[in-house]
Amino acid sequence: MLTAVLKKVGAIAACLIIWAHTVPQSFAQNAPIATVAAASDLKFAIEDLAARFEKDTGQRLRLIFGSSGNFYSQILQGAPFHLFMSADESFVYKLADANKTLDRGKLYAVGRIGLIVPNGSPLKADGVLNDLGAALKDGRLRKFAIASPEHAPYGMRAKEALQYAGLWQAIEPKLVYGENVSQATQFATSASTQGGIIAYSLALAPQVSRLGTFALIPSAWHKPLAQRMVLLRGAPQAAQAFYHYLSSPEAQAIMVKYGFAMPEQ
Amino acid sequence: MNATSPILTGALHVHIEQSSPMPLHGSFQCEAGELMALVGPSGAGKTSMLRAIAGLLKPSEGRVTIGDQVWMDTQTGQFIAPQHRHVGLVFQDYALMPHLSAMENVALSLLHLPSSQRKLKAKLWLDHMQLSAEQQLRRPKNLSGGQQQRVAVARALAREPRVLLLDEPFSAVDQMSRQGLYDLLADLRKELHIPIVLVTHDLAEARHLADSMVVMEGGTILQQGTPAHIYRSPRNARVADLVGVQNRFSGMWLGPQSAQDSIDQVGWLQWLNATGTPSEIKLRVRDKGRLLAGQHVTWVIQGDGIHLDEKTHFTTTNPATCLPVNGMVSLESNVVSVRHLGETTLASLSLPSVLGINLRIVRSGPQRQRLSINQPITVMLDCDWVHVMPSK
Amino acid sequence: MDWQSFILSLELAAITLAVLLPLGLWLARWLAKTSFAGKALIEAAVVLPLVLPPTVLGYYLLVSLGADSSIGRWVLQTFDIRLTFNFLGLLIASIIFNIPFMVQPIQRAFEAIPSNLSEAAAVSGLNKWQTFFRVELPLAWPGVLSAVVLTFVHTLGEFGVVLMMGGSIPGETKTIAISIYDRVQAFDLASADQMALTLLLLSIVAVAASFFATARILKARAR
Hints:
Structural class of chain B: alpha+beta
Order of helices and strands of chain A: HEHEHEHEEHEHHEHEHHEEHH
CATH class of the largest domain in chain B: Alpha Beta
CATH superfamily of the largest domain in chain B: P-loop containing nucleotide triphosphate hydrolases
Structural class of chain A: alpha/beta
Radius of gyration of chain A: 22 Å
Radius of gyration of chain B: 26 Å
Strand content of chain A: 15-25%
CATH topology of the largest domain in chain B: Rossmann fold
CATH topology of the largest domain in chain A: D-Maltodextrin-Binding Protein, domain 2
Shape of chain A: globular
Largest sheet of chain A: 5 strands, mixed
CATH architecture of the largest domain in chain A: 3-Layer(aba) Sandwich
Largest sheet of chain B: 6 strands, mixed
Number of helices of chain A: 12
CATH architecture of the largest domain in chain B: 3-Layer(aba) Sandwich
CATH class of the largest domain in chain A: Alpha Beta
Largest interface: A-C, 34 and 35 residues
Distance between the termini of chain A: 75 Å
Number of strands of chain A: 10
CATH superfamily of the largest domain in chain A: Periplasmic binding protein-like II
Number of helices of chain B: 10
Oligomer: heterotrimer
């Protein structure tokens, strides 16, 4: 008896869930929501800008953050993104060459990397990495986090900086890789590592800054983090509007506040 | 309960020929209202035969008909599925659905009726099987073996079957319940007037209950006939072994020895010693014209043909004169062993005239008291009860 | 608490069940009742998603169903439907990687049914469907219930495959497991805690309920 009642309740509940919720887009025929695939370092900056944009224009945006390299692969595989904000130009150019984009995109910001040292770590926040070198020798350093150099631009730049400082060979066995620079930040500020190299924009966010001390690494030590964005084929009007909004002085000022440098015009 | 209407009764005819996956050869038939026992050792193929009749086994070659309806004919390609055959099958382990009550189990055979009628009819069948109302609501797990069997029978009968098949119905039943089962079968025969086929490896039961017996071994049907006939005249030594004929001996067929023999249609059978050499005993038995003079034969004599004569004692020790008088051969014998079992006694008698051979007898009633070891006693063999078969 | 992701996960689990239950019942019964050369291969194929790393499965699905693949291209051209980076793609993946969870418990349950019960049903006049619904399914029910709950709970928590070919699109492919991952990366541990706890409790309740229901069925049968 009880089982029969439970079965009926379960069936009704299942129907309700499916009907009451906005049916996922693959089954719906309405216009797609503008989707922005943005590099992880842009998390706090773009969330802020997207909120302003939605308030000003009433147009909804869908935001996804991750590693630029992953997005690049996914877009090649046909992922339904509309605006791609990469932390590395080369991914945009490759997509343009593969005919996935409307044009060759626009430089929207220049990023910076730096060393972060969590509270209580034996490392010092020394942006020119002298202390890091010493820590490698005297054994204070056991684990160090960077984003994956395979597909995350911030990881690639971190590797370049470490190579420039002559520390790569010594530090490589102790590296922990984040899937993107957000995850690397997570690792770097946890007690499981003694520090890491992360994005400046992330370090400025209050959620991160209270977890440790940050020091910029000289930008000459690595290739520039030329962050390029591009509209993809089939991008709806809202995505295009946001693309243009991002180049406005108002938006650029906010980007600077979040730790980005503006590209020389 | 209503007997199946006469139009739907009919005799069961079965013919199967198959060599793989398991060998099955032979034919048999069972008339309406007849109870036929299918006997043989385990692995003889008896259950397979039942399954073939029910439609659960599809042999490579064969034919099963009931009355004028063809259930299976490999030659014409006909095959009626078990669902449509109206066959009642009582499985050896009853195969009752463990998640249904007794009544619900019987109701499975009644799905063609509307649900209200189903319960009612199921109840009637179970009442007929003498299950109380409270027992009818129980799950099989909570019923005794005998009760479960009756539920299984009720379920088979609720199908209003054209043939009733029972697979080893006695194997799990204790002695007390057996009588109940015999009564049940007797009642069913009267009421239903359909062929009833019963598989058993219990020969005593088969003899007791069956109108007709089919002896099987290794998938092959060896003989069909009334129990009396099979015991008296087994077709060959193998059948004699399978049905447990005790007194089986070797002999040499001499054939008719005189003109009178030919007129009387008799021949002479020389009893061979255990070593194979001829003894002095010759028996005068019916000649069915199937044997050649000088042929080595096997012969049997059923217990009914063996008499004990305590009064006659041989004064002469010349065995050469042990020839039949009025169809009976009198022989000197010695009781070698006596075993009392309940109401019967098994005894073994040695025969000085036939070396190395013992006669086995079974006695019940007053005669058994008078048997004791080493007692000399005269044995009289009735040549009418001698049955001769070619040696294997 | 990311309700959108939570409801998305529930939807994914429910629809997966709706599709996989009849399919699983049919396949499990077939495997339980028949034997033929090559059956072992099919059984191995059924178990495969269980032993395959989710990322491997996700990768192969991405490659074989993506817009660049022959299947993906054909489906796009013929039906104007994509098979990756959307709910439909997740559904396909979910159905595939849940096959062992659905089929195996049910197969074992059917195998445990004595074969003479189906025969007794046939001889009593039941056709295949009646035998299935009145005899086999009730007897296999504890196994079916197990399979349903396992599949449901497993789908709720699936991460690797979704990560590989979902794209984490909110409202579309951002399931609750992905959302938890995302919240952790955003340093929003409060949210992550809440969602993880919800998932944990839901899983415990579902599994406990299925054990409880199974025990009741078995006890009722023994009465």
